[in-house]
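Weekly sync, protein design subgroup
Attendees: M.S., D.O., the rotation student, P.L. (late)

Item 1: inverse folding check
M.S. brought a backbone from last month's batch and wanted to see whether the design step gives back something sensible before we order anything. D.O. pointed out we never logged the input encoding, so this time it goes straight into the notes. Structure tokens as presented (285 positions):
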């Protein structure tokens, strides 16, 4: 197995670009291929082991945490506003606590963050309906709607008169902690059987992140070309995000997983374990 190409999973969300932009599998010594897929396919591949290493949403990691190890110092996190996970509502959250909220079926991490906030912070039990990510259509059938990624960003540029709650900002004010939306992980079998390849990939991702954060210009240009918006918006957007995964980020994610487990959103408690060059390390509880 160790001689075959290592398969790397890539999430297409704009917020992960600074980590991926300078990452080129062709320049690695160990043969590797990168697959860019919708999150559901990546999540399944990482869990089953057909994708060996890569990025996945925090909640998808939690569901398969017994089969995965986290790569150190890589995440997509916010310490306050995240700017691309937004709840649009007709009234304040307290007034829609038992109303109807439309959510996109694309992100379990964000949807479950919303459920935790609505139940534990607001004390509500809204009804959630799944809908295509279209602000106007969602608001025709619901009191509020959750948009993520480029859909949320584009909707935030239009002033439709709705109240906008940034879930990253709400989480920070409520818990005092940041929130991690995506992580990088390696399948445990691959970590054992492809140790040298995984070590090289982990270092290449860390270096790509350093270069991406240091020089955002090409990433900003790409975002303007593909999504729209201004240079100032995208510099602000990327600089506001955090791509590290140190104790502070781990603490926020641990709390999110604990709440998700308490609410029955996760079937088991999550014990985060980090891959390292020597041995795996258990994240502090």
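Designed sequence read out in the meeting:
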């Amino acid at each position: 197995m160790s001689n075959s190409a290592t398969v790397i999973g890539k999430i297409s969300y704009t917020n992960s670009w600074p980590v991926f932009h300078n990452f080129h599998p062709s320049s690695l010594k160990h043969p590797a291929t990168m697959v860019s897929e919708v999150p559901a396919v990546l999540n399944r591949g990482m869990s089953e082991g057909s994708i060996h290493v890569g990025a996945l949403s925090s909640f998808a990691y939690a569901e398969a945490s017994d089969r995965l190890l986290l790569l150190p110092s890589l995440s997509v996190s916010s310490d306050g506003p995240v700017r691309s996970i937004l709840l649009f509502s007709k009234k304040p959250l307290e007034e829609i606590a038992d109303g109807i909220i439309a959510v996109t079926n694309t992100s379990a991490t964000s949807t479950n963050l919303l459920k935790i906030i609505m139940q534990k912070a607001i004390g509500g039990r809204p009804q959630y309906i799944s809908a295509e990510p279209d602000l106007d259509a969602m608001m025709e059938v619901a009191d509020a709607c959750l948009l993520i990624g480029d859909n949320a960003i584009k909707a935030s540029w239009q002033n439709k008169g709705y109240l906008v709650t940034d879930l990253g900002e709400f989480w920070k004010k409520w818990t005092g902690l940041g929130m991690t939306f995506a992580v990088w992980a390696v399948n445990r079998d691959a970590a054992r059987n492809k140790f040298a390849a995984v070590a090289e990939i982990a270092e290449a991702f860390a270096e790509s992140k350093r270069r991406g954060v240091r020089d955002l210009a090409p990433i900003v240009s790409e975002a303007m070309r593909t999504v729209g918006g201004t240079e100032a918006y995208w510099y602000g957007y990327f600089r506001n995000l955090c791509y590290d995964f140190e104790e502070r980020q781990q603490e926020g994610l641990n709390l999110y997983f604990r709440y998700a487990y308490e609410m029955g959103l996760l079937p088991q408690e999550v014990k985060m374990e980090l891959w390292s060059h020597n041995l795996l390390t258990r994240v502090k509880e």
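Discussion: The longest strand covers residues 68-78. The first helix runs from residue 17 to 20.
Action: P.L. to compare against the previous round before Friday.
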